[in-house]
Design a protein that fits this description.
The complex is a heterodimer.
Chain A lengths: L11 E6 L6 H10 L3 E6 L10 E4 L19 H11 L4 E4 L1 H8 L6 E3 L7 E9 L15 E8 L3 E3 L2 H9 L3 E5 L11 E5 L5 E4 L18 H13 L1
Parallel strand pairs in A: 1-2, 1-3, 3-4, 4-11
Antiparallel strand pairs in A: 5-8, 6-7, 6-9, 9-10, 10-11
Chain B lengths: L6 H6 L14 H11 L5 H10 L2 H4 L4 H9 L7 E3 L6 E6 L2 E9 L1 H6 L1 H18 L3 E11 L5 H21 L3 E8 L8 E11 L14 E6 L35 H16 L5 E4 L4 H12 L3 E5 L12 H6 L5 E6 L4 H10 L4 E8 L4 E5 L2 E6 L1 H5 L14 H7 L11 H13 L7 H4 L10 E3 L6 E4 L7 E7 L2 H6 L1 H17 L4 E10 L6 H21 L3 E7 L3 E2 L2 E2 L3 E10 L16 E5 L10 H7 L11 H16 L3 E6 L4 H13 L3 E3 L5 H6 L6 E5 L4 H11 L3 E7 L3 E4 L3 E4 H9 L1 H6 L1
Parallel strand pairs in B: 4-5, 9-12, 17-18, 24-27
Antiparallel strand pairs in B: 1-2, 2-3, 3-6, 4-6, 7-10, 7-11, 8-10, 9-11, 12-13, 14-15, 15-16, 16-21, 17-21, 19-20, 22-25, 22-26, 23-25, 24-26, 27-28
Classes of the chains: A alpha/beta, B alpha+beta.
Chain lengths: 233, 749
């Protein structure tokens, strides 16, 4: 599945489109801007077409009926994705993608209604807490970046044991550096699994890849990071 | 349950009484239907005519006036499809075409703010989709009663929540719009939604059925008992077999997830070239889609009405014809393409059903349980509705309004009073920071949003390689239009035109939403006629054609109509969005120029409204030639990289504009006023803008202003952390920000 080092510099990053995915074109653009090849993946497909990493983009998969991400978890493509993630494939879930990863039990906890009960769309400051995941390797630990938050159910919650586990094992990938915008526990904006290859992030780095169309280019590091990782493997 | 009213039965029982009045048809209109059909209509036919001949669908009171938009339209090669289609289509170059339209959803949004506003977004998006375009952005022009009135606290959060819910879930960036407050909108909020879409020239689709034998496909949501022809319709228990339990809600319920699937499904159907003609289902549902498709193609159509998939099996034929269930489309498809059409719908989980076929008879025929219940010439319902020349009379009160000159109002004099006056305007709900609203809207999705609120106009990139983009602004000022409907409509156009130009874009085309009171009131009709005439004349003068729009009458509670409120949307083209201008002062050391002439014009101004609750006198003078020259200077300044910022002057004049520039870019400025300070700060003379010139470009920009004949005065420079007006006052950015930012959160939480 991985590309032999030295034969191909362009890593292939899959972007899954579920019915109701909205930021799939943005995630694909971010992959291309970082120098990678974006591979569209379809929710009803049963294979990952040999990609080197996968992004679950933002949106309202299946209308977010029942519960955010609850139906997408059962999409045919998820069977292969869960197996590949367990085997170490880099996976990034953004916003609705984060919710899906939680529903699929690849990540602990859940995303709930914002503290203010309203949809929040604004630029936010994040502090990178873990710069050793495949998605954050290009950042420095403690680095602050500006990206876009836009969600109605972005408040991260988890039980006290799970929260302690995330904290003590460096599994909080990013926290809100300014005022907590949605009531997330511990100001948590993103987390990873124990192996570090599966990352869930509530804000949108793919909307911060160019000062023309976003608050800046701070978000591009998530995509250049995974390309660097994929090129190494 | 009464027996099915068939065509044969209608012919055999000519004298059977029918509830045409309850359905909103006059005796004369009912007689006309009988004359068209040479018999009485069946219940189903009566349902079709009642909705198609409604004011909303037929424009019967406005049509005689709206003709001017076409008759006076300036010559242009940019218009690929115009008025009469679902939306106008404009050529923007490089093989791209853009379609855009604004539409009202005022009444539903008052009854049920959340769903009313949500389905307003859904409806206008389908209009754009039906033209063959991919919808790429939305905007909303909102007007409510006083911000702190209890009912506004019910209506506004619901409307904003509905727009947020539907637009965000649909994945369309919300790039701007308006939010205004006035007691006149307390019983009649205005919710006007705009959508813009993009296509290649070759993708243009028209609402016309062609080719006898082609199939009629209904796809999208199932048809339910929601939004059936308004509350009065079907109120009669004897009508269409509807019993007591059939009192249906008249506001539709939206499902943005289905709409998202419908958008992607339609775009794939277009790409596969499987669609001969297409129409969205909005007002009047199946009645409108079938009659307009058949009339548009000058063909007949045979429909098996019981093939329509239902959410409620108890629905009868008249209810199905009038249902306004959301997220539905109707397509004409060649028989050979049906298999592939159905495959694509299945890929997107969109239910699709063949409900009929195109015929060569020129008649629209429908059957129900095998019996013929509709047999009409489709054009008689779609195109040949009644047209009324309503009487129009300038009300005597107009003279009193004009005589009530704001020059007589007490004015602030001296630095401290002017300072307090500016802070009061900035803190007023009309001028206050709108982040409470816009932070509920996704502006980033699709990754092409270059400018959004609080900028002068929204700006969307169309081509990532070339930088081609489109700018859009909506504007309207009910106070100006009340004082002078002709000038007020022109000022609305001028402001939207100026806002688009302030981003560096070239204004190209116009859409409008005419919000007025009852057309049966001669005073309202006078306002409407003058506003339409003013807008049509101004479009001709500025060289920007009206490509489509919408009229909303009956915006009144009891005898009190809203202020006449034409909301005008202007579309502009940006050759390279990387050269866009934004309003924020970002760097110190740029000289600030005031462009245009300032006179003492305070009639209908924000200052008079906020400080004195006053509306009277004359609105600002209209100078369309000056507007054109100003737009040309701004476009040249942007393209040449001469400008660091630009902001149009409108509500609140120079004072509010400078404060907004400082706050948006978090950089202060110092200016010196020449002439009466109050007039300089708060007058709302049109055709003006404030710009910050890049250091080193001063001479080049001055030359450009001279070349275009635009008066330009250096009034100061950017820099510092406060807004300083020499000899009068200074206000720190923190104090400006606090005054500007706290109002809406304090009211709405």
């Amino acid at each position: 599945m991985a590309v032999p080092a030295g034969t191909l510099m362009t890593a292939r990053v899959g972007v899954i489109t579920f019915p109701g995915s909205l930021d799939d074109t943005d995630a694909a653009r971010a992959v291309r801007r970082a120098g990678g090849e974006a591979v569209p993946l379809w929710h009803a497909d049963r294979d990952l077409h040999g990609v080197d990493a996968v992004i679950l983009p933002g949106g309202f998969s299946y209308g977010d009926y029942l519960r955010c991400g609850a139906i997408a978890r059962f999409a045919p493509v998820m069977t292969e994705l869960v197996a590949a993630a367990m085997a170490g494939l880099p996976v990034l879930g953004i916003c609705n993608g984060f919710q899906i990863l939680c529903e699929a039990h690849l990540l602990p906890g859940a995303l709930t209604r914002n503290a203010g009960l309203r949809f929040v769309s604004k630029d936010v400051r994040l502090r990178i807490e873990n710069a050793s995941t495949p998605w954050t390797g290009q950042y420095a630990e403690g680095q602050e970046i500006t990206v876009v938050l836009k969600s109605g159910e972005g408040a991260y919650v988890a039980g006290p044991i799970a929260l302690a586990e995330l904290g003590t094992h460096g599994r909080v990938v990013a926290r809100y550096a300014g005022a907590n915008p949605n009531g997330s526990a511990g100001d948590i904006a993103g987390i990873c699994n124990a192996a570090g290859n599966v990352v869930g992030l509530m804000p949108h780095p793919e909307h911060a890849i160019d000062a023309l169309t976003g608050p800046g280019a701070d978000g591009l590091g998530f995509f250049t990071s995974v390309l660097r990782t994929a090129a190494r493997t | 349950m009464t027996a099915l009213d068939t065509v044969a039965r209608a012919a055999a029982t000519p004298q059977r009484p029918q509830p045409h009045a309850e359905l909103g048809l006059t005796d004369a209109e009912y007689a006309r239907i009988r004359s068209v059909l040479r018999r009485r209509p069946t219940d189903a036919e009566l349902a079709i005519y009642s909705v198609m001949w409604s004011e909303h669908c037929s424009y019967k009171s406005s049509r005689a006036h709206l003709r001017q938009f076409a008759e006076k339209a300036p010559p242009t090669e940019a218009l690929l499809a115009g008025i009469g289609q679902n939306a106008g289509v404009v050529d923007i170059g490089q093989g791209y075409a853009v379609t855009f339209k604004i539409e009202s959803h005022n009444h539903p949004s008052y009854v049920e703010p959340f769903q009313g506003a949500a389905t307003g977004v859904g409806g206008i998006v389908r209009d754009i989709l039906a033209m063959g375009a991919r919808p790429v952005a939305v905007m909303d022009a909102l007007r409510f009663g006083p911000a702190d009135a209890p009912d506004t606290r019910r209506v506004l959060p619901g409307v904003v929540g509905g727009i947020s819910f539907y637009g965000n879930c649909l994945g369309l960036p919300n790039i701007g719009g308006e939010l205004a407050f006035d007691p006149c909108y307390a019983g009649n909020p205005l919710v006007n939604a705009l959508c813009v879409g993009v296509m290649r020239h070759s993708d243009l689709k028209l609402a016309a059925a062609r080719g006898p034998g082609n199939k009629v496909v209904l796809f999208g949501s199932r048809t339910g008992p929601d939004g059936i022809g308004g509350a009065s319709v079907l109120a009669s228990a004897s009508f269409g077999g509807a019993g007591e339990g059939a009192k249906r809600p008249s506001v539709q319920v939206g499902d943005p997830f289905m709409e998202k699937l419908l958008v992607e499904c339609c775009l794939q159907l277009y790409a596969a070239d499987l669609v001969v003609g297409i129409q969205d289902l909005g007002a009047a549902g199946v009645s409108c889609a079938t009659t307009e498709l058949a009339a548009g193609g000058a063909v007949g159509m045979r429909v098996t009405l019981d093939a329509v998939p239902l959410r409620d099996a108890a629905l009868g034929p008249a209810e199905i014809l009038m249902s306004e269930s959301q997220e539905r489309m109707m397509a004409i498809v060649e028989p050979a393409g049906i298999g592939r059409f159905m495959e694509i719908c299945a890929r997107w989980d969109v239910p699709a059903t063949v409900i009929g076929e195109v015929t060569g008879t020129g008649r629209l025929e429908m059957t129900w349980r095998g019996e013929r219940i509709v047999d009409i010439p489709p054009g008689s319902a779609a195109d040949d509705g009644p047209v009324y020349e309503r009487s129009a009379q300038r009300p005597a009160s107009q003279d009193e309004l004009a005589a009530d000159d704001p020059a007589a109002l007490p004015r602030p004099a001296g630095g401290p009073a002017l300072r307090a006056g500016l802070l009061a305007l900035l803190a007023s709900p009309d001028a206050a920071d709108k982040s409470w609203v816009t932070e509920q809207y996704d502006r980033y999705v699709r990754g092409d949003t270059v400018l959004a609120a609080p900028q002068d106009a929204g700006l969307v990139r169309i081509d990532e390689r070339t930088g081609l983009g489109i700018a859009l602004a909506t504007d309207g000022n009910g106070r100006y239009t009340l004082l002078d409907p002709y000038a007020g409509a022109q000022l609305a156009l001028a402001e939207a035109y100026r806002n688009v130009a302030a981003t560096g874009a070239r204004p190209l085309a116009v859409t409008n939403c005419m919000n007025f009171g009852s057309p049966e009131d001669p005073a309202v009709m006078w306002q409407f006629a003058a506003a339409v005439r003013g807008l049509a004349d101004a479009c001709a003068a500025l060289g920007v054609p009206v490509t489509g729009g919408n009229v909303s009458f009956y915006n009144q509670t009891g005898g009190a109509a809203i202020y006449p409120t034409p909301v005008v949307g202007v579309l502009g083209v940006h050759d390279d969005v990387r050269h866009r201008l934004s309003i924020g002062f970002r760097e110190p050391g740029s000289s600030i120029l005031l462009l245009g002439r300032t006179a003492a014009e305070l009639g209908g101004s924000l200052w008079a409204h906020v400080t004195h609750g006053h509306v009277g006198g004359r609105p600002p003078a209209v100078d369309l030639d000056a507007e054109q020259r100003l737009a040309a200077v701004l476009a040249a300044g942007a393209a040449g990289g001469l400008l660091a910022a630009a902001h149009d002057l409108s509500d609140g004049g120079l004072a509010v504009a400078l404060a907004e520039c400082c706050l948006a870019g978090r950089t202060g400025c110092a200016v010196t006023l020449r002439g009466d300070p109050f007039t300089c700060l708060f007058s709302e003379s049109a055709a003006r803008a404030v710009v910050a010139v890049r250091p080193g470009s001063e001479a080049a920009f001055a030359a450009s202003c001279a070349e275009h004949g635009v008066p330009a005065a250096v009034i100061g420079a950017t820099g510092g952390v406060s807004l300083e007006v020499a000899g009068l006052f200074g206000i720190s950015l923190d104090e400006l920000g606090a005054a500007h930012g706290q109002t809406l959160p304090a009211i709405f939480g």
